[in-house]
Amino acid sequence: MSESxxxxxRIRAHPAYRxxxxxxxxxxxxxxxxxxxxxxxxxxxxxxxxxxxxxxxxGGATTLGIPIGFGLILxxxxxxxxxxxxxxxxxxxxxxxxxxxVGE
Length: 104
What we know:
Elements: H1 3-13, H2 15-48, H3 50-53, H4 65-102
Helix pairs in contact: 2-4
């Protein structure tokens, strides 16, 4: 086994790394669930309550469905930004500590 493979195995076996993987996975699945609920909720709204989405806003040509759809896009961007912030702030720092502890 090469040195890099042995080092990778030591990192994978580290208890803090396993905790990091669980935390990262839980965050990813939580954010995925939020996005899926919002998206499928919007699709179900389109399927079962078209008149609500067709309601004009302030008597104009824009309907309620447009800002809700735009909000869905913004939700995806916000959730992605949140994941990146948490990963950069917490996950990367913890991984660097684990790698330093395992050694070069």
